[in-house]
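FAQ

Q: What does a record look like?
A: Structure on top, sequence underneath. For example:
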């Protein structure tokens, strides 16, 4: 009768050095753990630590203005309750934009 798979290796073909290497790696993993590298943050995005407040506020202001334009464009493409939601988002974005602009004015007043 013909077998589909070959015979398993016999004891003479077995190399125990591989098992020893694996065992030593496992022991070292638990007894001598490497120090974990700290993650910058748990969030998706990170910021450089050397950024000053003005740069952060300018970028936040530009992002808010872009989001406001997207929401305003969306508000005039839809009707009904969804339009009211989009217009409400526009109003909220404008309020946050005013707060960021005021903070930017306080940190870097115009000459």
């Amino acid at each position: 009768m013909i077998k589909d798979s070959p015979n398993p290796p016999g004891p003479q073909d077995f190399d125990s050095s591989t098992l020893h290497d694996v065992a030593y790696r496992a022991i070292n993993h638990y007894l001598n753990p490497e120090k974990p590298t700290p993650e910058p943050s748990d969030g998706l995005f990170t910021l450089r630590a050397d950024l000053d407040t003005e740069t952060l506020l300018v970028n936040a202001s530009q992002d808010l203005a872009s989001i406001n334009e997207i929401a305003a464009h969306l508000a005039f493409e839809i009707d009904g309750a969804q339009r009211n939601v989009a217009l409400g988002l526009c109003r909220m974005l404008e309020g946050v934009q005013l707060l960021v602009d005021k903070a930017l004015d306080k940190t870097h007043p115009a000459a």
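Q: Is there anything notable about this one?
A: The mean pLDDT is 82.
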